[in-house]
Amino acid sequence: MSDACGCDDDKPTTEAGEAGEAEEHEPERFWEVTELRAAAVAGLLLLAGLVASWLDAPEVVETGLQAAALAVAGWTFVPSTLRRLAKGKIGVGTLMTIAAVGAVLLGEVGEAAMLAFLYAISEGLEEYSLARTRRGLRALLSLVPAEATVRRDGADLVVAPDDLRIGDLMIVRPGERVATDGVIRTGRTALDVSAITGESVPVEAQAGSDVYAGSINGTGVIEVEVTTTAQDNSLARIVRIVEAEQARKGTSQRLADRIAKPLVPGIMIAGVLIAVIGSLFGDPATWIERALVVLVAASPCALAISVPVTVVAAVGAASKLGVLVKGGAALEALGTIRGVALDKTGTLTRNRPAVIDVAFTGNATREQVLAVAAALEARSEHPLARAIIAAVDTVQPADQVEAVTGAGLTGLVDGRPARLGRPGWLDPGDLADTIARMQAAGATAVLVEHDGRLLGAVAVRDELRPEAAEVVDRLHRGGYTVAMLTGDNHATAAALAAQAGITDVHADLRPEDKARIIQVLRKERRTAMVGDGVNDAPALATADLGIAMGAMGTDVAIETADVALMGEDLRHLPQALDHARRARTIMWQNVGLSLAIITALMPLALLGVLGLAAVVLVHELAEIVIIANGVRAGRARPLAPFTTTAADTEAPQPAGVNAG
């Protein structure tokens, strides 16, 4: 790893993605880290030299042991430093190498060995901490079982997950993990997805339900049709995305680099000036030694490692909580958010709408209204369409169906023109009061017209998530402003917003309108947009930070957003915000402490108050403190189980109203 805490652009250890490619084996224990093994040997040699000194052994024995310690510890960073110098690159290892060589020239072999010994320990601890936090993310891949049962040609075979093919039928028994993503074809069960999405309670699943790699089957045998290969399933995709995006550096990390890169050559110039000017007016040996001590005292190693350790630890911890954070930039942006804009459908609501009311006029019937509406919605994937289709027994798709953006649908039903759409695009006529009542109840109302005659209206309501009010209250108490952005009508939006405790409501919005509202909100405070990543894509991209809700399996959400809440529990939102705010605080603590160390040590070294060994000891101990502080960002508390009431889970029953 050598020179790992340096400031070089090609340094692999501070870039999680590159590290993943460069290291085939992540060290799991202290003694598996090369730098720590070398430091241990060097430490024993130094201890032996100290014992030799106490026993009045010949000086050559003591010096030989110290030289051996210097060679062993220096091997961890000197060769790579020379290679980088050959490429014209200067890093912290350059300062350490110069200081060690200078100390040897001054006859201080023991101090040079101590410098190399402590520097090797610092590098080793950094590598261990980074490897440990990287393992936290990659541990997701270990959730995939070693084998899977698949049915081929009528026989059940046990195969490796890598041998699964799209279209295979997996047999998953109770207690087994799902080997890759798929769709349940037969069976009913409860899936434990806590390790993947952070959901605190098992999720009911049946025929037609999606399942994801790593889920634990609960109560029943299920047959799952494979939809992705093991190399491309949800877990593998998450790991690839996070490791690639960790290369994006956040504001503090870029600040550390901007400070460190000019600081290294600046320190070298300062060292030369101290040696030259001091030698002109004093003892050259004294001032050259002080110049070398200043070089070590001003080393920006702690500054360079202060943010990467924190970022990797925090991102790894977030992934365990069901929060996918795309690297340092996203993590820091998440920590600066002060305003949250929430989409309604699928974010504040369950995204499982149902028909709760049907109004009809004149000689029309409830069945006729629903039949025409279902015919127009037959090929639509919109949640409202699914609710209407679910309310009828059979659907005869309409012909020549066309969507009118922001309004509704047109087509031919039984050869006659039909329309379905929002009030305002279609005249509600005698149903105006009924529509107002539906909307006041928090429902979305659509009018149905056939052959130029208004048949009636259908009210569809997507129930508020049971945890929504708790989440909004927690956001308010945390100092965040909360707004709702929705394409639904204002009456429906206002009714649901009131239940959730939101007063700032923006309704009747098209996707471009949401992006415009986000621009306005951003002028007041740093704002995050939380949406489903499809209709909200422009707003997610426009916001200071885009957060996708329920992103497992939703490619658009993962690609568009900076952060993705992989589960369906909205409580992950304030949890993620709190986690990022804490991580950002730790980052700045580390940056401040790093600069304070440099500021304090340089004058003490220049005045001769501290010698080489003392400066090295203080500096390296400070680095260990900074690494330990950064690792604290990897601590996160999982959500407690959320219990729903009977009222929360009770499905609404369709009703019928004759308004004519």
Helical fraction equals: 40-55%
Overall spatial form: elongated
Class of secondary structure makeup: alpha+beta
Radius of gyration: 32 Å
Task: Estimate the mean pLDDT confidence.
Answer: 82
How many beta strands in the DSSP annotation? 23
What is the count of DSSP helices, taking H or I runs of 4+ residues?
24
Q: In percent, how much strand structure appears in the residues?
A: 15-25%
Number of domains: 4
- Major beta sheet summary: 7 strands, mixed
What strand order characterises the main sheet? Answer: 10-22-21-20-11-18-19
Extract low-pLDDT stretches: 1-24, 644-655
Report how far apart the termini are: 80 Å
Walkthrough of the structure:
With 660 residues, the chain is α+β, with helices and mostly antiparallel strands. Helix 4 (78-86) packs across helix 5, helix 11 packs antiparallel against helix 22 and helix 22 packs antiparallel against helix 23. The protein has a seven-stranded mixed beta sheet with strand order 10-22-21-20-11-18-19, sandwiched between helices. A seven-stranded mixed beta sheet has the order 13-14-15-16-17-12-23. Strands 2-1-3-9-4-7 form a six-stranded antiparallel beta sheet, with no helix packed on it. Strand 18 (481-485), helix 18 (490-500) and strand 19 form a beta-alpha-beta unit. The chain has four domains: 16-139 and 241-320 and 580-634, no CATH class; 145-232, Calcium-transporting ATPase, cytoplasmic transduction domain A, CATH 2.70.150.10; 323-350 and 464-566, HAD superfamily/HAD-like (Rossmann fold), CATH 3.40.50.1000; 354-461, 3-Layer(aba) Sandwich (Calcium-transporting ATPase, cytoplasmic domain N), CATH 3.40.1110. It contains 24 helices and 23 strands. The relative contact order is 0.12. Helix content is 50%, strand content 16%.
